[in-house]
Amino acid sequence: MCGRYYLKSPPADVAALFGVDVRDNFPPRYNIAPTQPIAVIRNDARGRREYALVRWGFAPAWARKIEGRPLINARSETVAEKPTFRAAYRRRRCLIPADGFYEWTGVAGAGRARRAHCIRRAAAGGAPAGGLFAFAGVWETVTDPDGGEIDTAAILTAAAGPDLKALHHREPVYIAPARHALWLDADERDIAQLAALTAPSRAGDWTHHEVSALVNSVRNDGPELIAPDGDLPLFS
Asked: N or C, where is the chain less crowded by C-beta within 10 Å?
């Protein structure tokens, strides 16, 4: 799954990778949490690619108001059929920029905290590990009883691949740059092509290391959250 992630790349890098105009001068965020505003790349009503801020926590269009536990993830295996996400998957997909995300292992209690791990793209093609990439997402607009509109989004997940299955049985779906256009532009006639984009990752796609418990609190936000824990070995 993906319940916390970070985006430290500057707006200019986001604009360049996704081919959009980014006018927000947003700061690095190292502890993005559910219900917070997040950056997404989507198509506007004319089919043009745009940058937008939405709420992380999906709500279907028929929802009268946003309440209860936020739907932060959508399972890629069922997103095309599940009534909550079906319409958004067919017509309102998005890309969610990120530099990495977090996962936890172990069981809390008896004075012990769960162990947090920072996960990034692995080094490839001469490029170092880390760097800006995109999660697959879906978005929907909810109209409240007063007529106000709220855009909401969820991150798609798949069964964890070999790099991450020791941490969790699910992982967020990564969309490679060469497939950004297909993910955003495919219409209902092309929907079958999208299944290949949401397959589990391959060995060597991700790298991870253990980090301090600072990330456990959403009140903490800074580059120290992604630094390897000094008392623990770096592993990948």
From this structure: C
62 in any annotated domain: yes
Give the domain extent around 22.
5-99+128-203
Q: Could you tell me which of 97, 101, 122 has the C-alpha nearest to residue 9?
A: 97
* 236 in a structural domain: no
Alpha helices in the chain (DSSP H): 11-18, 83-91, 180-185
Q: Residue 217 domain-assigned?
A: no
Active-site residue flag, 103: yes
| Annotated catalytic residue within 67, 94, 103, 210 | 103
Cβ atoms of residues 40 and 22 within 8 Å: no
Distance CA 92, CA 66 (A): 19
Active site residue 94: no
Domain count, the chain: 1
Phi and psi dihedrals of 27, rounded to 5? -80, 165
Q: Looking at residue 151, which CATH number applies to its domain?
A: 3.90.1680.10
pLDDT tens digits, 14-72: 999 999 999 899 999 999 999 999 999 999 989 999 999 999 999 998 877 777 788 99
d(CA 176, CA 171): 15
Catalytic residue (one of 2, 94, 118, 171): 2
pLDDT in tens, 208-217: 999 999 999 9
For residue 211, is it within any domain?
no
Q: Which range has the worst mean pLDDT, 11-15, 95-99, 120-124, 227-231?
A: 227-231
